[in-house]
C-alpha cells in the first residue's frame, strides 16, 4: 500500500479529438487557420488603438485593446499545445506543465470576465451619464479597473491551482479533453474530491454566474432608463457588440464551471467554443459593427502603405 502511494503520476495523456491520423491532420489545418485569424484580428485591433490618438484617449477603446490582448493570451494558453498534439500520437503533457496550463487558463479567463464587466460599466456611464463620462471614466480609473481585473484573475487562479496541487494523482492519467482544466483533471485524483469540487464550483461558478448577472442587470438598467425608442435603438446598437461577446464567452463558461464536475459528450465542443472560436470572433464582432474602428484601421492601412512606398522609393534611389 505504501509503495502505491509513492507512485505518483508524472505526466498526463490528453485525449484530444480523434486517434485517426488523417482526421487529426485535417483538424490541424483548421485550428491553425483559427489561431492565425485570432492573432491577426487581435493584433490588428491593438495596433489600431495604439496608433490612433482619438481611440487611444477613449476609455472604451482602451478597454477594447486590453480585451484583445487577453483574447490573444487566452487562446495561446491552449491552442499551440493542441496543434502540436494533432501531429503527435502520444499527446503527453508533464504534470508540472499541466498545472501551469491550468493556472494561466483560469488566470486569463477570470481576468477577461472581470474586464467584460468593467466594459459594461463603461457603457452604462457613457449612455446613462454622458455629461459626466469624461470625468468618471478617466484614464487613471481605467488603468485601476484593468489592473483590478488582472489581480482578480490572479487570485482566482491561485486558489484553483492550490486546491488542485493538494490532491494526489496516482492513476489513471488520461485527461478527457484537449487541454488541462479543473473538471477533467480533478476526476483523476485518487481520493475523495467532493469537498474540493464543491469549493471549485463555488469559486468558478460564482465568478462566471455573478459577472453574467451583473452584466445583464447593467444592460437592463440602460434600456429601462432610456425612454425614447430612438434612444433605445441607439443604445442597443452601441451595446450589441459587447452583448454578443458576453454571450459567446459566459454561456460556455457557465455550462462548464457552474455545475458539478460530471462529464458530458458536448464538453469538448463547448471548450473549443470559448477557448478557440470566441477569441477569434471577438475582433470580427467589434470591427464589423464599429465605424470608428473600421475608419481607424483604414487610416492605419493607408499610413502603412505610404510608408512602404516611401521605403521602396528610397531603396530604388539608393540603388542608382
From TrEMBL:
It is found in: Cell membrane; Membrane. The chain crosses the membrane at residues 27-49, 99-121, 133-155, 205-224, 236-257, 269-288. It is a multi-pass membrane protein. SMART domains: 7TM_GPCR_Srsx. GO terms for cellular component: plasma membrane. Residues 41-286 form the G-protein coupled receptors family 1 profile domain. Keywords: Cell membrane, G-protein coupled receptor, Membrane, Olfaction, Receptor, Sensory transduction, Transducer, Transmembrane, Transmembrane helix. GO terms for molecular function: G protein-coupled receptor activity; olfactory receptor activity. InterPro entries: GPCR_Rhodpsn (IPR000276), GPCR_Rhodpsn_7TM (IPR017452), Olfact_rcpt (IPR000725), Olfactory_Receptors (IPR050427). Belongs to the G-protein coupled receptor 1 family. PANTHER family: OLFACTORY RECEPTOR. This is Olfactory receptor. It comes from Oryctolagus cuniculus (Rabbit).
Amino acid at each position: 500500500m505504501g509503495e502505491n502511494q509513492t507512485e505518483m503520476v508524472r505526466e498526463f495523456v490528453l485525449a484530444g479529438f480523434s486517434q485517426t491520423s488523417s482526421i487529426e491532420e485535417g483538424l490541424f489545418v483548421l485550428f491553425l487557420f483559427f489561431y492565425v485569424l485570432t492573432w491577426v484580428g487581435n493584433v490588428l485591433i491593438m495596433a489600431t488603438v495604439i496608433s490612433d490618438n482619438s481611440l487611444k484617449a477613449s476609455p472604451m477603446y482602451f478597454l477594447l485593446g486590453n480585451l484583445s490582448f487577453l483574447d490573444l493570451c487566452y487562446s495561446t494558453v491552449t491552442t499551440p499545445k493542441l496543434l502540436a498534439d494533432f501531429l503527435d500520437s502520444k499527446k503527453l503533457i508533464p504534470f508540472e506543465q499541466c498545472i501551469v496550463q491550468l493556472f494561466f487558463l483560469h488566470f486569463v479567463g477570470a481576468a477577461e470576465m472581470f474586464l467584460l464587466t468593467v466594459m459594461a460599466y463603461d457603457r452604462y456611464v457613457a449612455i446613462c451619464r454622458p455629461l459626466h463620462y469624461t470625468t468618471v471614466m478617466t484614464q487613471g480609473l481605467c488603468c485601476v479597473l484593468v489592473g483590478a481585473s488582472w489581480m482578480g484573475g490572479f487570485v482566482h487562479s491561485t486558489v484553483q491551482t492550490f486546491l488542485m496541487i493538494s490532491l494526489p494523482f496516482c492513476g489513471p492519467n488520461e485527461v478527457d479533453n484537449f487541454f488541462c482544466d479543473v473538471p477533467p483533471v480533478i476526476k483523476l485524483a485518487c481520493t475523495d474530491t467532493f469537498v474540493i469540487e464543491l469549493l471549485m464550483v463555488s469559486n468558478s461558478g460564482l465568478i462566471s454566474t455573478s459577472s453574467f448577472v451583473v452584466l445583464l442587470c447593467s444592460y437592463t438598467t440602460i434600456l429601462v432608463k432610456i425612454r425614447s425608442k430612438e434612444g433605445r435603438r441607439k443604445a442597443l446598437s452601441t451595446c450589441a457588440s459587447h452583448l454578443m461577446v458576453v454571450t459567446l464567452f459566459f454561456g460556455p463558461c457557465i455550462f462548464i464551471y457552474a455545475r458539478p464536475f460530471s462529464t458530458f459528450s458536448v464538453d469538448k465542443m463547448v471548450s473549443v467554443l470559448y477557448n478557440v472560436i470566441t477569441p477569434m470572433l471577438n475582433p470580427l464582432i467589434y470591427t464589423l459593427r464599429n465605424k470608428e474602428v473600421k475608419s481607424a484601421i483604414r487610416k492605419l492601412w493607408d499610413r502603412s502603405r505610404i510608408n512602404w512606398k516611401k521605403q521602396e522609393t528610397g531603396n530604388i534611389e539608393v540603388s542608382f
